[in-house]
Amino acid sequence: MKTNYRSNDELIFSLPDYVTGTELEAAVREQIEERLNNDKTFYAEYMKIKETYNYMKDVETDRAPENYFSSLLPRINERIESESTQKSFWHYLIGSWKIAVPALTVILLIVIFNKSDKIENTNGVPGINHRTEIISADSNIKESKEVITNSEEEKTVSTETVIAPVKRKTVTTVKKENLSMLSESIFSESEEEEEFYYEDEFVNMNESEQNELINNLKNTKF
Amino acid sequence: MYITENYLNLNLNLESNDNDLITGFLNGENTAFNYIVLKYQKRIYSVIRKMVQNHDDADDITQEVFVKLYGSLKDFRGESALFTYLYKMAVNYSLNHLKRNKINRTKTVQVEDIHEISSKDKNYDTVFDEDLKTKYISDAVAGLPEQQKIVFSLKFYDEMTYNEISEILNKPVGTLKANYFHAFNKIREYFEKNKIHQSI
Lengths: 222, 200
Description:
The complex is a heterodimer of chains A (222) and B (200).
Chain A: H1 8-13, H2 15-20, H3 26-38, H4 40-56, H5 68-123, H6 125-150, H7 159-176, H8 179-186, H9 189-204, H10 207-219
Chain B: H1 18-26, H2 30-52, H3 55-72, H4 82-101, H5 111-116, H6 124-142, H7 146-157, H8 162-169, H9 173-193
């Protein structure tokens, strides 16, 4: 009795290879032959596979239509070419987007910046008036200082005499102001608001306080 | 770039081994790719056709496999043989196709198709018998479970070794042997069920 016998399954699963005569170790072949002589069930199994194989061998199934293979290569090449064209189109699109997106972003930013500038300029017109008012107010204060210096009586000059020319001058100054002043005014809005605050404060002062302030101003270079 | 055999480079030919063809292709010799197609087209078509059981689908998948090969050859590292690589693609593409179309059961072969491909030299009765036989066998193979069908096709028709099939399908040899045996049994059962066994 030989040792190293394959399991029953292993021998059965090797039957197709025994029948077709392929890929079978000599030892396995011997064991199969020995089993075929002694085991009827095993032999029946073998016969089934053999009959099936004999029926199927030499029958060519699923044959391709005539001339199919002579036309396959050109069609494959055609497909490769069309796919590479499609690919290159997408590559071109992707490549162009790499440039187009930043360029569009820059253009968009420029447009937005320009628009916001225009809006600010339009909204800034009253501001410009304020600026001119302040400038003219400054000159009026100087004028008023001179007036005060010239005559002690004029110390009692009312706030109306100071403010009134300011208002008058505002109207005239706006007309005379050139466009370069417009741009300046944009950057000085906070400043003018502050100055307005002082002007309002000045108006709200009583007479003695106003005089004191004027005296103080007189003693300064401002 | 419609390269036919007229343009094929003299240094390479259909007898060139796969490594030479791949090297040629990687060195810009596009004709090398054409030789690969010519060398393997029948086997690849055959394995796909047996799986999808339809010429049009098999044709489409065969083209797809070679187009894919064209794109991936530059990355081919030679870890497996070229034909194994191709078979693997063919099997995977066919399986994907089957999954997409949910073709799990038998799809019969059109009798008209069989007549179309018959040999003209044989007499009608012989041709008809053989056509019927072809139809029975095709139906029997088509009715196999997917795994058995692939193994049977690669082993029986393409005469591949278990090791080669194992590399393609990533399955142990023992499992493949069992699949092959069960495939034979199922085909036999189909014949018996349809009383084809009488003619065996």
